[in-house]
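Posting here for the record, re: nicotinamide-adenine-dinucleotide.
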Amino acid sequence: MAQSIFDLTGETAVVLGGTGVLGGGMASALASAGAAVAIVGRNAERGMERVRMIEAAGGRAIFQAADALDVNSLSEARDAIVRELGSVTVLIAAAGGNRPDATLPPGSDFCRLSREAWNGVFDLNLVGGSLLPAQVFGETMLAQKKGSIINIASMAGMIPLSRVVAYSAAKAAVINFTKFLAREWATRGVRVNAISPGFFPAEQNKALLFRDDGSYTERGAQIISHTPMARFGEAQELAGAVIWLASSRASSFVTGQNIVVDGGFSSTTI
Ligand SMILES: NC(=O)c1ccc[n+]([C@@H]2O[C@H](COP(=O)([O-])OP(=O)(O)OC[C@H]3O[C@@H](n4cnc5c(N)ncnc54)[C@H](O)[C@@H]3O)[C@@H](O)[C@H]2O)c1
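Prediction output follows.
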């Protein structure tokens, strides 16, 4: 029988932010398709938890500590991963998120949004979340003329969401950067795409979406009412997009694209 075009056997995938909810889910998806996966992040406990989940499902994974905002720690992580799992062929850049001081409370004054909060969100999502990992891991992909980089942007990068202007603008920049890099490396064997999730409950947004008793906050309920599918997404619902973009056979002519997985949120105007 012909080998599936979605088979990732022989690929080595790095999931930066694989310690988080969406990154962790994407790491499991890649491992289930046959890739050896390196979970990269700051939290060893959560990273090892994901490694054990992947191993229990029959996959191969390691945890490697690194701070996405520290280029030296990323380079050290890359070298350790290459030694242990071989050349990196897939990078999921999933470290990112909003921060509380960059969220404008209802009715608050946009002019009071601090520069520190703005810079912090741009640093995490654009610099640590996309630029530095692309430079560090892209170098090894270019050397072997093979690679797929997947930046995790956001639906907020296409529609500026109220209250999270810095986050929305930073993710818009991630989508723009993705297109730049795709064009830059298109003839050098490295494809660069983005996935833009809609609303998925995760660590960085759970206080925004849920009260302590598990019921929706006003904001959470508002989001559900604006989502045609009338629910939040679940991490495993990104699996298809990530495996497709990671596979050099399934998406060989796809680069510079932003794949939206949002239950229809961005197709509505009200
Ligand atoms: N959850 C959503 O609804 C949603 C929607 C659109 C986009 N996203 C994006 O998906 C990505 C994953 O976020 P998530 O929602 O799973 O949140 P999460 O908080 O569960 O995961 C984010 C991960 O990034 C890691 N991280 C943060 N700073 C880091 C650093 N300096 N170095 C290394 N790791 C760092 C965190 O430790 C965490 O493990 C983010 O880029 C986020 O912006 C999420």
